[in-house]
Amino acid sequence: MNTLTRTESFTNIVVERDREALEVFGPSVQFLVAPQPSDEAPCVMRGTIPPGLSVPIHSHAGIEAFFVLSGMLRCSATRVESHIGSRLVLGIS
Predict the structure, then answer these.
(1) How far apart are CA 81 and CA 46, in angstroms?
(2) Distance CA 77, CA 74 (A)
(3) For the purposes of burial, counting CB atoms within 10 Å of the CB of 21, is it exposed (0-12), middle (13-18) or buried (19 or more)?
(4) pLDDT at residue 81, as a whole number
(5) What is the pLDDT of residue 11?
(6) 2, 41, 55, 80: which could form a disulfide with 36 (CB 3.0–4.6 Å)?
(7) Distance (Å, rounded) from C-alpha 78 to C-alpha 8?
(8) 50 burial class (0-12, 13-18, 19+ CB within 10 angstroms)?
């Protein structure tokens, strides 16, 4: 049996202006930590949804978590409204 005996930690400094923003039918996303080959690895994005627009309906494995920095986020799947400083987590069974 293999036993993990060492823990590695690291810091990754992200310079936002160095990351390309992609427009996705109105909203834009910017990968701060890109998707990794492992399904277990987190991906961190900064998303901007202009007032009156929405993210297209989609699905994928894993959870999707949001932290509202400004404005308000309304999730049609859960009928929950999230305001500045709140979080919304989707996809937990």
Answers:
(1) 19
(2) 9
(3) middle
(4) 85
(5) 61
(6) 41
(7) 37
(8) exposed
What are the tokens at 23? 């427009």
Residue indicated by tokens 């277990």: 40
For the residues of 15-39, what is the DSSP string, one character each? -GGGSPEEE-SS-EEEEEE---SST
Q: What pLDDT is stored for residue 87 in this prediction?
A: 83
Please write the tens of the pLDDT for every residue from 16-48.
777 788 887 888 888 887 777 766 667 788 888
Tokens at residue 44, please? 């961190």
54 C-beta neighbours (distance < 10 Å), count = 13
| Chain-centre distance for alpha carbon 30 | 10
Strands 64-67 and 44-48: unpaired
